[in-house]
Amino acid sequence: MADIFQGSVLKPTRSGTSNSAETSVPVSGVIRDVKPPPSSYELPYPDVVDIGLHRYKAAILEDENSVEYMVWAANSSNLTRVDDPSWSISEGTVTIPEGTYTVVDPNSPDQISITPVRRDGSIYLVLRDDNERSISQILNITIRNGATQSQQELAEGVDFEVLDPESGLIRLLDTALTQSVCGPYGSDPPSMSTLRGDAVVGMAYVLSPQKFWWSRNDALSTRFSWSDKNQSWVLRKGKTPVDVGVLSPGTPSNLEPKPSGLVAGNYLPGSVAGDSWCMLRIGTFPDSTSLPLGENPSGPFNGILVVTDFASTETYDFSALSPPPAAVIGETNGLIQWNESFVNEYAGQTIWYNYRSFQEEEDGIVGELLTAKDSHLFLAPVPRLYERPMIRIGSRRYLTTIVVRTEALLNSTTVASGQVAIALSTGKLKFNAQDVLKSDPDSVEFEPRYLNDLV
Q1: Do 132 and 164 belong to one domain?
Q2: First CA to last CA distance, the chain
Q3: 8 Å CB contact between 243 and 201
Q4: Residue 354 needs a FRET pair 20 to 30 A away by CA distance; which of 64, 145, 274, 423 works?
C-alpha cells in the first residue's frame, strides 16, 4: 500500500460558513480521472478504474460497517467502590414491614389468654442505603426490642440471611439469639414489631461496585438509536413474532417490518429443521412444531424465493422451477405471492414472521406473564448466540437470561426464580413456574402486585 499512496494524504472536504464570501460547493481536491490501472498493480482490477476516487475513499471516508457502542450504568454506585468487607459502612436505614406474627409486649392492651401481645411481627427487614446506592453485602445488624430495650448484634448467615442484597431484603432466622431479643409468642418465629417500638440501631454493609450494561450497533443489527423525543440514546426494543394472518387461497401476504438485505434469486433465510431458526413459519404457534419455510431443494416445495418487486406483483409461474417454491417475495416491498398448490395443502394455517431487525417504534411488550402458565411467550428478534436480551416482569429488575440453542434443550433446562430461558431456534421463553403463578389469582402463590403484569 505504501507504493500506491505516495505523496500527501488528502483531507476531508470543508465548507465555508454561511456568511463567508467564499461559500460555494465543497470540493475535496480529488482529481476524477477514469483510466486503466497502472501495470505495476498486482491485484486483479477492472479494465478502467477511478484511481483518485478509490484512494480518497480508502484514506478519508469512514468505513460503512463501523461499530458503535452504548454504555450505561447498571446500578447506583461509583468507580471508587470495592466489594470487600473491609469497606463496610453504616449509612443506611432499616424498615420493618408489617407482618402477621405475634410478639410479647407488656405494654400492649391486646392479650392472648393473659399474655399482652402485638400481632404485626415481621421476619423480614429491608435495608436501604441513605444515598440510594446499590448494596452487595450485608454483614451484620443490631436490633433492639422496643419493650425491654435489650439489643443484640446479629451476624449474616447465622442469625439472618440476605435474600436479595440489591433490594436489601433480610429474613430473620430462628436462633437462640433472635429468640432472646425478639420475644416471640408461643411457637411463632422470632420477628420484629413496629407497634412494640422495635428498631434496627446498627448495621454494617458493603456497597456494590459500579457495574455497566453495554450494547453495540454493527453490520448485523442496529440495537440503539437517537430519540428526538427523549433527547438521548435509547435501546431499540423487540416484541413477538408477527402473526401475518391465515394462509388462504388467492390472498397475498405482506411482511411488516419489511425484511432487509434480500437479494433476488436467493431464498428467505432459515432452516427447514423444525427446531432451528427460520424467518417464516406456518402453524398454530411459532414453535418447533410449526413448519419452517426455509430453502428445501429436496422437498415438495422449495422455500420462499426472492424476486424483484415487479415480479412479486405479477402472476408468477411456479411450475417453471422444480421443486416449485412455496411462495415468492419482493426484494424490498415485503409482498408475498403464494403458490396455489402450497396453499391447497396448508390452507388455514397461521403464518408467523420472525423478523431480524429491531424497530424504533416497538414498545417491547412480549405478552402477559400469566400467558406462560398454559401457553408460551416468544421473543423477536430471536437473539444470536452472543446476545443477551433484557427481559423483565413489569417494571422489576431484569431477569437473568439463560440461552440454549434449541427447544429440546429448553424443555430440560431448570429455571430458578428470577431467571428466564430462551431457545435460539424459535425465541420461545421459559419462566420459573412459581414466578408465573404469582400472577394467577386462582393460585395459592398469587401476589396482587403481579396481577396483569406484562413481560
Answers
A1: yes
A2: 54
A3: no
A4: 64
In this structure, the answer to whether residues 160 and 247 fall within a common structural domain is no
Looking at the fold, whether 12 and 116 belong to one and the same domain comes out as no
Residue 224 near residue 167 (C-beta atoms within 8 A): no
Distance CA 213, CA 275 (A): 31
Cis preceding linkage at 323, omega within 30: yes
Residues 187 and 91 in one domain: yes
Task: Determine how many CB atoms are found less than 10 A away from the CB of residue 188.
Answer: 19
Where among 207, 226, 257 does a domain terminate? 207
From CA 448, how far away is CA 401, in angstroms rounded?
Answer: 25
- Residue 1: the pLDDT is 44
Cell of 256: 411488516
53-78 residue pLDDT tens: 777 776 665 555 678 888 988 888 88
Instruction: Kindly state whether residue 66 falls inside one of the protein's structural domains.
Output: no
Kindly state whether residue 125 falls inside one of the protein's structural domains: yes
The model's pTM is 0.75
- C-alpha 197/C-alpha 107 separation (Å) is 10
| Own/partner long-range contacts of 367-370 (Cβ < 8 Å, ≥24 apart) | 367/240, 367/454, 367/455, 368/439, 368/452, 368/453, 368/454, 368/455, 369/393, 369/431, 369/435, 369/436, 369/439, 369/450, 369/453, 369/454, 369/455, 370/436, 370/439, 370/440, 370/452
Do 153 and 99 reside in the same domain of the chain?
yes
Q: How many folded domains does the chain comprise?
A: 4
Concatenate the DSSP letters of all residues of 307-331 into one string.
E-HHHHHSPP-GGGSSSPPSEEEET
Nearest 10 degrees: CA dihedral of 354, 70, 417, 140?
180
Are residues 90 and 54 both part of a single domain?
no
Cell 416445495 belongs to residue = 301
pLDDT at 20 (0 to 100): 52
Instruction: Kindly state whether residue 222 falls inside one of the protein's structural domains.
Output: no
> According to DSSP H, which parts of 29-173 are helical?
51-59
161 against 45, higher pLDDT:
161
Flag whether 228 is in a domain.
no
Instruction: Classify the C-alpha dihedral 6-7-12-13 as positive or negative.
Output: negative
Enumerate helices (H) and strands (E) in the chain, giving the number of each.
Answer: 7, 27
Grid coordinates of 430:
421459559
Q: Which DSSP string corresponds to 407-443?
A: HHHHHT----TTEEEEETTT-BEEE-HHHHHTT-TTS
Both 201 and 252 in one domain: the answer is no
Lowest mean pLDDT of 22-36, 186-200, 310-324, name the range. Answer: 22-36
52: left (phi over 0), alpha (psi -120 to 50) or beta: alpha
Structural contact between residues 125 and 96, judged by C-beta atoms closer than 8 angstroms: yes
Amino acid, single-letter form, for residue 102: T
Residue with cell 392472648: 112
